[in-house]
Design brief:
Length: 142
């Protein structure tokens, strides 16, 4: 009888704790922005690349850390100078409406297109900005 009472009390406490965890979950809504880094002194070159080569609209303003911001679909791309940037395979991926057209535009701008492993249900490729940041463009198929 005492064991049952303790067991029921523990089960009730566990259930209450579990419910608190469920209600305390972070409610993510959407991705707001991505920050990529460029070498120190490269802001003018970055501005030219992102506006001329990618056709992004710059978001005017005096942004933190001297960053420049661009509108990219329904999110923002933040670009900021930083010492010691590294060459990595980390990347954001962006869904585009016409992957073959995007590839053609980038190749006309002299950008190298890279490929990776196949993923069912999507076509994709990668490119790097002049500062080594890797980006993936993808289109869902089927």
């Amino acid at each position: 009888m005492i064991i049952d009472c303790v067991s029921n009390s523990l089960n009730h406490s566990f259930a209450q704790s579990l419910n608190k965890l469920r209600t305390a979950m972070i409610q993510f809504k959407r991705l707001d922005h991505i920050l990529v880094c460029i070498p120190e002194g490269a802001t003018a070159e970055a501005r030219a690349f992102y506006t001329d080569s990618l056709g992004l609209a710059e978001i005017p303003g005096n942004h933190p850390g001297g960053a420049i911001w661009f509108q990219m679909g329904d999110i923002e791309l933040h670009v900021r100078e930083e010492a010691g940037t590294s060459f990595s395979k980390r990347h954001p991926a962006f869904e585009v409406g016409n992957l073959s057209e995007a590839k053609e535009i980038l190749q006309q701008k002299g950008l190298a297109i890279e490929y990776s492993s196949d993923i069912d249900g999507r076509d994709r490729f990668f490119f790097r900005d002049p500062f080594g940041n890797r980006f993936e463009l993808l289109q869902f198929i089927g």
